[in-house]
Specification:
349 residues; mainly beta; four-stranded antiparallel beta sheet; 28 strands; 46% strand; globular
Length: 349
């Protein structure tokens, strides 16, 4: 007997197959460390993959030496006052680190651990990015703006805004994420208007914008130039051509869903990307997600190579957000930092 499937029958079989293989297995990491006593609020890896800066909840930010698993420096605005570090970052050359406590940013010299500059802003800081040499900051503020800030001259150079028309709102929308290009010439912002926007940081001119299905929570530049990556919460993560504005692909955690078919509006095809890093040779991409998931991708095609889940710190607390990911300097391993305060190392087979 021969059974022929058409239309909806084929779709249902594909969907069932995706659901069956969609469950991601938990892997045992090759190494694991407690980088925070209880939980961390923010984390960032140095560009060379040798250090991780972890913003502890109600404690100082700590710079960890990954190879030796030891604290190099403990940083906070006022040593006598314990605060929560709400955002952290590194300059592109890895020489400058930044820590933010609500409305205060301190820049630190990584080589010595000494504070370099301290700035107080009139509103709280949501996220930050440092320029390649650490002489500029791009800050997403809770007043619904992003500011491009000259560290040396202590002044705001440009104010960037996400007006609310894409979501039919009469007011500007909150900006969630920021990034500065490796050249230092361009900025990326992602906001609650469901838009990712590309800016000329010298002129403040908006060069491109990309609409998403939800609030944009992560933006990043491809290190070799020419492309950007943007992601919407509980939506899709896209790889775009900066010059043409066209989408190269969207990341698909289901490896069996046909590329020629658009992704259905179904929960199993949606994800929230919370952290990304490109391999030293720029051929691979690692992403961290809000569902304690890590995924490895091929940059050229966007093909998923592997996905796995990190361990929980406590079995009764299943929610684990991956705050930062990084390739090791030799590209043979991946590091992850999660909101449960656990850092892990995964050897790539």
């Amino acid at each position: 007997m021969t059974i022929t499937l058409h239309g909806q029958g084929v779709f249902r079989l594909l969907l069932m197959a995706v659901l069956l293989v969609g469950c991601t297995a938990e892997k045992v990491s090759d190494e694991q460390w407690a980088h925070s006593e209880l939980s961390s609020y923010a984390a960032a890896f140095s560009p060379d993959g040798k250090y991780v800066l972890v913003g502890d909840t109600d404690g100082p930010a700590r710079l960890w030496d990954l190879e030796n698993n030891k604290v190099v420096y403990s940083w906070q605005n006022k040593p006598e006052e314990v605060g929560t570090t709400t955002a952290v970052g590194f300059s592109g050359d890895g020489k400058v680190a930044a820590t933010s406590e609500q409305d205060i940013i301190v820049l630190w010299e990584v080589a010595t651990g000494e504070p370099m500059m301290r700035f107080t802003f009139p509103v709280k800081i949501k996220s930050l990015a440092l320029s390649p040499q650490g002489d500029y900051l791009l800050l997403a503020l809770y007043d619904r703006t992003a500011v491009y800030f000259d560290v040396i001259e202590n002044r705001v150079v440009k104010i960037l805004e996400h007006e609310g028309s894409p979501v039919n709102a009469p007011i500007n929308q909150l900006i969630n994420s920021v990034a500065i290009s490796p050249s230092g010439k361009y900025g990326l912002t992602g906001g609650d208007d469901q838009m990712a926007r590309l800016w000329d940081l010298t002129t403040g001119e908006q060069l491109r914008s990309w609409k998403h299905s939800n609030s944009v929570n992560i933006v990043a530049f491809y290190p070799k130039g020419g492309f950007v990556l943007t992601g919407a919460g509980n939506g899709q993560t896209h790889f775009w051509n900066m010059v043409s504005g066209e989408e190269q692909y969207s990341l698909r955690t289901s490896s069996i869903w046909p590329k020629e078919r658009p992704l259905p509006d179904f929960p199993t095809f949606k994800m929230t990307t919370t952290a990304i890093d490109f391999s030293p040779d720029n051929n691979y991409l690692i992403t961290g997600h809000a569902s304690r998931k890590l995924c490895l991708w091929q940059v050229v095609t966007g093909d998923r190579l592997d996905c796995w889940q990190v361990a929980r710190r406590q079995a009764l607390r299943p929610g684990v957000v991956i705050q930062a990911v990084s390739f090791s300097p030799d590209g043979k391993a991946v590091y992850s930092e999660a909101g449960n305060g656990i850092g892990q190392k995964w050897l790539l087979k």
